[in-house]
Amino acid sequence: MKQNGTLPVNGLKIRLIVLVFLEYAVWGAYLISIGRYLAQSGLGSQIKWFFATNGIVSLFMPALVGMVADRYIQAQKTLAVCHLLAGAFMLSAGLYCRGTVQVEFGPLYSLYAMSIVFFMPTVALTNSVSYSIIGQAGGDPVKDYPPIRLFGTVGFIFSMLAVNFVSIGGVSMQDSYTQLILSGILSLVLCLYAFTLPKCPIVGKAGKSLSEAFGLNAFGLFRVKHMAVFFLFCILMGTALQITNGYANTFLSSFAGNPAYADTFAVKNSNALLSLSQISETLCFLLVPFCMKRFGIKKVLLMSMTAWVLRFGLFGMGTPDMPGVLLFVLSCILYGIAFDFYNIAGSIYVEQNVDKSIRASAQGLFMMMSNGVGATVGLMCAGSVMDHYVFKAAAPDWSSAWFIFAGYMLVVTILFGIVFRESKK
């Protein structure tokens, strides 16, 4: 056992790398490409429901499952059971699509939603299991986990590229139900793998209360003006988080109907192009602490908001051929700033401005406002915009939809610059 607080590069660290790699590979197999498949199956106007489910489930399932892992069932076993159920439902969704001529929204969404119900808690559980195992080995989770977590993004990118470049029966996986089958299989593999991990001790029934588990005690932060304003803008910014995940691939694939663009790399390999967003996210992850110290939370969040404005606007102006495709590439590069500078910097700001007694609850509230309430509302509103301009329009107008999202974020950016005053603490 190491006593200096740093976990050595050994079998244990490699096992945790495999854990986070598989966890995010499960997600990357479908998250960016399922919108493309749904649109091609005649379910383009229903994309919003598939992505809004992530936010709705995030409001309650991570807290409930986390409480089970804290009090009753070892975390690694809880993780395994969740992946067993998530994988079984996702595999069933893929097999349903395989066995039917016309995919119907009801059966597919029901199976998909049940998979998401059990998958979303595994993201937090993977963190908990890793922290526990690192701690038991004498390491320091704060120092040791971030480099391990980066391999989760590597796993996400690996699945995206596999779905892009692998074809089954002459059909790319990003255009097929096989992406759901791949995700289900990976989830079942992770289920088996989780059962082999070191045991994570149960805290016991004297742990958090139900209100603490759901972060309800952190709602008192709304009595502090700068925190109330911050959480309000978490909702407004959270609306942007999942829009490009839901619609970017579908947007790029729509150019296939134009003979001038049909054979371009951006159309035929849209998942590969969009993987630049995740690569950018990995690199920008390292910039956040430096920018926080140098510029402060307000300027960092303004950078994030400005990046969202540009990300949407560049999608509206770009085309799959040269030089228009460079606008898509630039949009993907900006994603790292847009996503990381909000999520990581926001989490740090919460950590710096709350009492230690409600630290975990405050972080839960931050996630609830942005990835729960904000992302859900954002997907439903974005879905209505897409229905009006694209899926139910006589002539699809993707550019107008992207410019509306850019305009919305521009208004949020200006309001944030005027209203928000960061704490001097």
Question: What descriptive keywords fit this protein?
Answer:
425 residues; mainly alpha; Growth Hormone, Chain: A; 17 helices; 2 strands; 72% helix
Could you characterize what this model shows?
The protein is 72% helix and 1% strand. The protein is mostly helical. It has 2 domains: 206 residues, Growth Hormone, Chain: A, CATH 1.20.1250; 218 residues, Up-down Bundle (Growth Hormone, Chain: A). A two-stranded antiparallel ribbon has the order 1-2. The chain is globular and about 60 Å long. It starts with 10 loop residues before the first helix and ends in a 6-residue tail after the last helix. The mean pLDDT is 89.
Set down the secondary structure blueprint.
Elements: H1 11-28, H2 34-40, H3 47-58, H4 61-71, H5 75-98, H6 105-136, H7 141-165, E1 167-168, E2 171-172, H8 178-194, H9 210-213, H10 225-238, H11 243-253, H12 265-268, H13 270-284, H14 288-317, H15 325-352, H16 359-391, H17 398-419
Antiparallel strand pairs: 1-2
